Amino acid sequence: MGTDSEPAPPPAPGKQPAAAHVVLLASPGVGHVLPMAELARRVVAQGEVTATLVTYANFSSAGHGFPSALMATLPPSVSTAVLPEVPLDDLPANARIETRILTVVDRALPNLRDLLISLLASSSPPGGGGVAAFVPDLFGAWALQVAAELGVPGYVFRTTNLMALLTLLHVPELDRTTTCEFRDLPEPIRLPGCVSLRGADLPDPLQDRTSPAYRFVVESAKRHLLADGFIVNTFDAMEHETIAAFETLSGKGVYPPAYAVGPFSRTCSSGGEKAEHGCLRWLDEQPDGSVLYVCFGSGGTLSMEQMAELAAGLEASGQKFLWVVRFPSDKDRSASFFGSGHGHIDDPLSYLPEGFVERTRGVGLAVAEWAPQVEVLSHRAVGGFVSHCGWNSTLEGVAAGVPMLAWPLYAEQRVNAVMLAERVGLALRPRGNDDDGVVTREEVAALVTELMVGEKGAAEREKARELREAAAEAWALDGTSRKAFEAVAGEWKKTAAAVRSRGAS
């Protein structure tokens, strides 16, 4: 909606500004846009609030920007804007995802400033209460300084969990007090209300102090402290101890307050491409709880060797499976995040071991690139989930009451996996990933069997049922997440009222 010389426009003409207007900024990537869109829905559902959802033109192809179908479903009180594309030609071809995203966010700051100025003007008193809050997600914390310069309160929407946030906020201290690579730290990292982490469990960008991504992440952690508060996509039953510990730290002024408002996750859709997907018809023919769903998110990528080992392990387990197969990469475990070229080969199933599809026909189903994940997880036939532990996928599994095999690949996913396995009791975890090594076919077969028909799997299944109920209760009328969301929305309305009052005087 903008050009290189023009800021993205304000909300469409004809929309009357409400008492409070909230600007939401989603980082590039569908995993960032989807939860931010859900936040936008809930913001305007509070009444007396409108919102503008801002995305980036960079990386907007292949469904990784702002999906047009999603845009069409947003309420009328949510406007959208797209920041113009910024050049990235000077970045190395092998630049990390985090480097690319944060470079886009940094270089688009002038466009963002122009957009905020135009929105401030269009929603100013006496007709409205100005821009009551600027809410970027985790990468957009880089932009909090712009909002502060314009006098707009800033809140970071953390699309991950609170333990991941607390870990990130501790990174500058680790950077200041240690000299070795974090994976070589001799002692575990112990944070209030969290399970202990090894240095090797920290996100990949933090494993090499010489990389540009490392400095980006450390600086981003510092900029988080510019926020007036954190809106976190988690809920009490998932992280009770961490929420309590963070509240104590916030009360002492160590960190801004955190509002646990989750879970935000997609719900099933009806009709259309999703309902007609062949994998759902295949699931209809399978017994209840018998199928293992295998999917590594929109960006997760396996190496050729790991793909072969996973295939062999699934086959050896004898368990039913539905596997979303994407193109492998021996260089990047997040190669699918922004799409990738594969020359003349356009079928990821062609990379599976020879004869695998034929040998497993009737027991398993491999589908290329995509499946309607929410519908799949909610299907009565699905009894387990091999997941990369991206937080969106994790919450979708929780909402469906499905236990997991935690197989982290990049970003904060190892932190999530540790929490799910050791604190929540929702997931088994392969040992091979602990050292970034290949998970062997023997381990895959053993873990799959245990998850689907073993005692540990049964215990996880019960925990999954409990969490599913707790997730629903969190947003009940008196639920903890609903109250937290109403509290932060109340702060925005107060800000709007104060701005309106100053404008009238």
Automatic annotation (TrEMBL):
SUPFAM superfamilies in alphabetical order = UDP-Glycosyltransferase/glycogen phosphorylase (SSF53756)
Entries under InterPro entries matching the protein: UDP_glucos_trans, UDP_glycos_trans_CS
Q: Does the keyword Glycosyltransferase apply?
A: yes
Q: Which GO terms describe its molecular function?
A: glycosyltransferase activity
User: What is this enzyme's class at the first EC digit?
Assistant: transferase
Keyword Lipoprotein assigned to the entry: answer is: no
Keyword terms of this UniProt record: Glycosyltransferase, Transferase
UniProt lists the family membership as follows:
Belongs to the UDP-glycosyltransferase family.
Name of protein: Glycosyltransferase
